[in-house]
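Bench log, entry 3. Co-assembly request; chain sequences pasted below exactly as received.
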Amino acid sequence: MTADASRGAEAPPEFVQLLTPEGERVEHPDYDIDLTPEEIRGLYRDLVLVRRIDLEAVALQRQGELGIWASLLGQEAAQIGSGRALTEADMAFPTYREHGVAWCRGVDPVNLLGLFRGVNHGGWDPAEHNFHLYTIVIGSQNLHAVGYAMGIQRDSAEAATIVYFGDGATSQGDVNESFIWASVFNAPVVFFCQNNQWAISEPLEKQSRIPLYRRASGFGFPGVRVDGNDVFACLAVTRKALADARSGQGPMFIEAFTYRMGAHTTSDDPTRYRVAAELEAWKLKDPIERVRSYMFKNQIADQEFFDAIDAEADELGRDVRKRCLALPDPEPLAIFDHVYAEPHRLMDEERAQFAAYLEGFEG
Amino acid sequence: MSTLTLAKALNEGMRKAMEDDPKVLVMGEDVGKLGGVFRVTDGLQKDFGEQRVIDTPLAESGIIGTAIGLALRGYRPVCEIQFDGFVFPAADQIITQLAKMPLRSLGKLKLPVVVRIPCGGGIGAVEHHSESPEAYFTHTAGLRVVACSNPSDAYEMIQQAIRCDDPVIFFEPKRRYWEKAEVDVSASADSAWLPLDQGKVVRPGADVTLLAYGPMVKTCLEAAKAAEDDGRSLEVVDLRSLNPLDVGLVVESVRKTGRCVVVHEAPVFNGFGAELAARITEECFYNLEAPVLRVGGPSTPYPPSRLEDHYLPDLDRVLHAVDRVFAF
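Structure output for the full assembly:
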């Protein structure tokens, strides 16, 4: 089982990298990026803040305030890099782990917590942020993204969609169907696969015997693997893929080669299925540390800047926690709201019956 | 007025909807040049182009999943599932996504997607081509489920379904596709049309209520006619909408007649008739002269076509049930 599915430090995968784990800028013949110091500082800030949102959410779950949480720890660069490549007109279709992309789209983090706290199933307006609702069923959103992209084609709009999914999702029928549809209709969609190496407890070898990005060629469109812990490379590769899609060049598959540092969700225990050495190897590739190191070395920021970001993260964490705890439980009769867009007599009837039942407890 | 088959009435209804609203799309397997295996979409691609009448790859989940995406972008897709038994590969997209996305968004999203399903047996088809999967979808909150039974309703209901902001599962009785009737194609959807969520008494009667939808409406009308010779007056109700159910119409009829027989092609066990029988028991208990009886398929897979005449409710089985409700 050596089929290029190595998850540790050994056997380096073929991928696009612009910033090494040591914080050195490197060149790539096909992808480059020219970022201003301000843009780099902005990316660093995003990385730190979304990690802090995530850590706060994990803590809230451990304290019983959230039912469950799907941590993004380790995947910040993949999400911020790709998320910052989007224009306002582009539409993003996430799984349930895209807290970093949500951040880039301007979704209030507390809205993400609402889903995991159990006060709603989403609740933000997808059209307001061009960030679709979290989708729990694995890979379903791929088809929605392609359909949306077909709509963009019919509107002759200057836009594309990006859809997020994991390595496990590539085994799903819907994901494979989405590749076929996108290819056949030349839809402006970027498939952004975060290969975090593990589908709950199942390693990549249980999903694929070839590197995931190579699957694209079988469907008739290009695929590329990018260092998913390198925010510069993720931004550069996604930016180009989206531009190509918008200009009519069809779909693109991006495999962001990364690692889920925590559990799949707070419900599982990764020590049961993976070895500590693997985690240690990936710690050395941390997406935040390498940017920090690069910025220090190149005098893009000083200690004062880093301290200020840390303080901002602390404040954000406190704010998210406070507002999460203040989220009110919905009224009981909200069960019947929004099931249908138009009046529906069964909803009316059952709502009235339930209301009458509840009224029996009053007074 | 035009004399149209049910298939042609659907075709004219879709054509009208596409003319009225450029956001209406038709999509499915073979819906373009071929015009669908039943020719229900005949000529639409020729007149509206490949961007609006989309021949899709052969994958039902993909059809519904991409239709959801198109609806999110502001389009109103009308999907054709080629045969009833092929809707199951799309069941995940219909049940976990299409039905629930508006709720997940707290009402911010609307999914005006129509899923057309030619349903039922009686055409001598092979396995998986003659099923009645309505109960799966009526059980799923967030979907509307309707069944047309005649050309005039087909023409009106398909347009109403397309205009509806909710997802609609639209059942078409495939063995009635070629039956003709007068259809007023000059009228456009207006207040004169019966709303999509209402049923209709298609034959008034005094002694027994026959509840039916889709292909069984005609069978029940024939039974009512035959029963007349025995001096029995049967009222036939075409439910048309299964979710929401027009409970008021059903209750009114059963209270009047005191007896009720439910007729559908699907297996009786846990079928849609069970919901009807339970509702009627709750609402009409003191009006009933006999228990509500159900006529439908046995709880078996749909049989090979040489046996389907035994499986499908026919006039004799309906009348047999009528005899039983009189015998109580």
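The beta strands of chain A are 91-93, 161-166, 189-195, 198-199, 202-203, 223-227, 252-257. Chain A touches chain B at residues 120-127, 132-133, 135, 137, 140, 142-152, 154-155, 161, 173-174, 177-178, 180-181, 184, 337-342, 344-347, 349 (CB under 8 Å).
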